[in-house]
Amino acid sequence: MIADWKLKLDEIVDKVDSGERLNQDDGIFLYQPEVPLQRLGELATIVRRRKHGRVAYYNINTHLNPTNVCVYRCQFCAFRSDLRDPKGYAMTDQQILERGREATENGCTEMHIVGGLHHKMPYDWYRGIIETLHANYPQLHLKAWTPVEINWFEFLTKMPTREILLDLQSVGLGSLPGGGAEIFHPEVRDQICEHKANSHKWFEVHREAHSLGLRSNCTMLYGHIEQAYHRIDHLLRLRELQDQTGGFQTFIPLAFHPDNTKLNYIRKPSALMDLRTIAISRLMLDNIAHIKAYWIMLGIETAQVALGYGADDIDGTVRHELIYHDAGATTPELLSVQRIRELIEESGHQPIERDTLYRRVHRDPLDYSKWSVGSPVESAVAAEAVS
After folding, report:
1. pLDDT at 193
2. What is the rounded (10 degree) CA torsion for 373, 375, 376, 378?
3. Given phi > 0 = left and psi -120 to 50 = alpha, else beta, which region is 286?
4. Is residue 176 within 8 Å of 144, Cβ to Cβ?
């Protein structure tokens, strides 16, 4: 058995050395605990350095979650709220504009916009968020609405996917985030989020977006009830669409946080599982340029180490992130640019600020010291309870 295991690993090493694509069996094998994590990291680093050398990317960004009221009750979600729950909220136009002002004053180039599916809010409310922000802060790239939300907009308007995307583009939509993917395989998806947009719809939205010139990200939520087979199946489906469209920019593995969810009996993934998933993702997704170590979910130290396990992006300042903090993430609510650059440099990499589309951002280093790097401004944009 030991000889067979070593032979299989040697075969994979040869594939990586020669640039040959790994298959499903290879991916499942690499999730076996017998495969040394350090060796896996070395293989992922080979691929990472071919693509990016020693560069590691970050951006200056903020999150906007306009409402947490949601018609769905996904098993893994701690963010959602019922309409009359005391924690339920929907932001006003004034609050949203204040977030835009805060973002631009603190050097943000991107606003990441996702939220709940509020059954009392019309499509025009969601559309208006993009239109208002773009009209007032055109320098902000608006990365907004997952396929789950696009699917909800279709339900509200009876418009097809392509028409919804074209309409949002016309008022300022810049790209799509990767959320809502969770795990594609129906054995898992039907258990953790059975009522929301299925895998077919998730891919349809991204395929249409790519055909319109919109770039997007992709994700995978791991460490709950899924197994190695489901994770590899998920990665292969992403790789297949990328072969067809080339529209994915970044893959973000999302470590499940169980606190305050209906799956709170599950232990969150260990740092070792996080690093293994990062490395395997880099090896399997040979046609997606970037792998992100999302420090909000991984923790700062693990995200830093992940730069040596195939990741080339550590995300950014991430102001006002709510979704994963509600699920028990203990990471800070904001990282300063200085701290992000230190983390990257300490890992032996060169920090490069990017915008959403991975264009390098050039700034006067003195700009960083002018911006607030403390806690985000909460008083002016506190969520308004829904009655």
Report:
1. 73
2. -150
3. alpha
4. yes
pLDDT at residue number 366:
60
pLDDT at 369: 58
Q: Report pLDDT digits (tens) over 154-192.
A: 999 999 999 999 999 999 999 999 988 889 999 998 887
Measure the CA–CA gap between 290 and 59, rounded to whole angstroms. Answer: 14
Kindly list the structural domains of the chain, giving each domain's residue range(s) and its CATH number in brackets, ordered by start: 54-381 (3.20.20.70)
Exposure string of 229-239, with b = 16+ CB inside 10 Å and e = fewer, is ebbbbbbbbbb
39, 89 contact by CB (below 8 A):
no
CB 224 within 8 A of CB 76: yes
Are 168 and 129 a contacting pair, CB within 8 Å?
Answer: no
Q: Which residues of the chain have pLDDT under 70?
A: 1-3, 71-83, 194, 260-262, 318-333, 365-387
How far CA 138 is from CA of 60, 71, 109, 174, in Å, comes to: 16, 31, 10, 11
Tokens of 183: 């795990």
Which residues neighbour 46 within 8 Å (Cβ) at sequence distance 6 or greater? 16, 17
Radius of gyration, CA atoms only, the chain? 20
Please provide residue 313's backbone torsions phi and psi, each rounded to the nearest 5 degrees: -140, 135
Q: What percent helix, strand, coil does the chain show, rounded to 5?
A: 45, 15, 40
The 10s digit of each residue's pLDDT in 86-137 is 778 889 999 999 999 999 988 899 999 998 878 888 999 999 999 999 999 9
Task: Specify the DSSP element, H or E, that contains 26.
Answer: helix 24-30
- The first and second tokens of residue 305, run together, are 């180490």
Q: Are strands 173-176 and 55-59 parallel, antiparallel or unpaired?
A: unpaired
Coil, strand, or helix at residue 8?
A: helix
